[in-house]
Amino acid sequence: MNTLKEAKEFIAKTKEFNIWHNNEPYDKNKEYFFVDYWNRSNRSWVRSSYLTMDYVSGASKQCQVNTLVRKHGEQRTDFRVNSERYLDLPYQIWNEELDCYVPDDKENNRTKLYGGRFETTIYQTGQLPLIRFDDETKEDWFKRIKTDERTSDRYKNLDFVDGKFIKIGKEAN
Question: Where are the domains of the chain?
Fold first, then answer.
């Protein structure tokens, strides 16, 4: 989905958003995680999004068992877990002029770490990604993410005016 219009139309016409790994409805009050690990037997990364802690715990135990056994089974290494809430957030870029971090409009933490093909937020949760769509101006994008519940307190001292970020409120002094 390249445009905000397409994304909003998709959300409006989709009746229910289900988590892919278990086909259960998405619950915005539940904590979800992204797991990835290196599978030595087939030399590939295994990546799964929107997993519950129970699933993460089971996957972690299985990776530990495989590492300890080291027989003919799969060898899994580099087991990593990231919060989906963290991955949804815009990637932060240092702004020398303001002496603070500002959000990147083109990447979130998920796309920075794993690439664009793992940006499945809209399909599994019905929430708009916090990256800028092709038909959004940077000003409109910043207004949208600033009012999103996932970033509600994050950018209260920033604004985007005349093509650049500015500090507002007590931070501006």
Answer: 4-172
